[in-house]
Structures are given as structure tokens and as C-alpha cells.
Design brief:
By secondary structure, the protein is mainly alpha-helical. It is built from 4 helices and 2 strands; from the N terminus they run αααββα. Strands 1-2 form a two-stranded antiparallel sheet. It starts with a helix and ends with a helix.
Length: about 110
């Protein structure tokens, strides 16, 4: 089980490395997912917008498991979510693994579209 997860995560990292030229960290992956979900790219995002994009990514990822629901979009096209159920309490290692599992599922779903 652990080895299968490691292979799946490596596949995501390799795909992103190939596309962007370097291995992304978790923040970069969340930022990229946020941009994907926003649906439009700007040349430059403010620090606050970058944080908002990572929040959009996290909510999008956790909506796969029913923790968040999309409420709608604001006038600027930004998605807004509401919490559907509390996310379980986890330590940092568990949180990272939890997010990685959701990221793997996200990219698997994108490939299937």
C-alpha cells in the first residue's frame, strides 16, 4: 500500500517536473491547482491572491471527499466554498499525506476528462 502510494506520488511529481522544468513543492502544486480551478492566468498575482489560490486548491481537493462544497463564484470568477464537514485533526505528516492522496486523485481525474 505504501509503495503504491509512493509510486503514484512520484508519477505526479514527474509529470509536473516535466511540464514546468523543476520538481515542485507542496505550495507550488497547490498554487498550480488553484490557477487551474480559477480558470484564467495572470502574469502576476499578489501575495494575497497566491494565498487565495492555494486555499481554492485545498478546498477543491478536499471537496473530493465531501469536506467542502462549492457555493458559487464571485463577480471576478473566483470560486467560493463552504465547509460541509470538519476535516479530521491530523499532525503535519498526516496532513501532508492526506493532501498528497487528494492531489493524486485530482490529477487522475484530470487525465480522465
Amino acid at each position: 500500500m505504501q509503495e503504491e502510494f509512493a509510486q503514484q506520488w512520484k508519477r505526479v511529481e514527474e509529470m509536473l517536473t516535466e511540464r514546468f522544468g523543476k520538481k515542485p513543492n507542496m505550495e507550488a502544486i497547490l498554487f498550480l491547482i488553484g490557477i487551474q480551478e480559477l480558470g484564467h492566468m495572470k502574469k502576476k498575482f499578489t501575495k494575497e491572491q497566491k494565498q487565495d489560490l492555494m486555499h481554492v486548491a485545498t478546498c477543491t481537493l478536499l471537496s473530493q471527499s465531501g469536506y467542502f462544497e462549492l457555493e458559487g463564484y464571485d463577480k471576478d470568477g473566483w470560486p467560493h466554498f463552504k465547509e460541509a464537514q470538519p476535516v479530521p485533526k491530523m499532525n503535519m505528516m498526516e496532513q501532508e499525506r492526506f493532501l498528497q492522496e487528494h492531489i493524486i486523485a485530482y490529477f487522475d481525474d484530470l487525465e480522465g476528462r
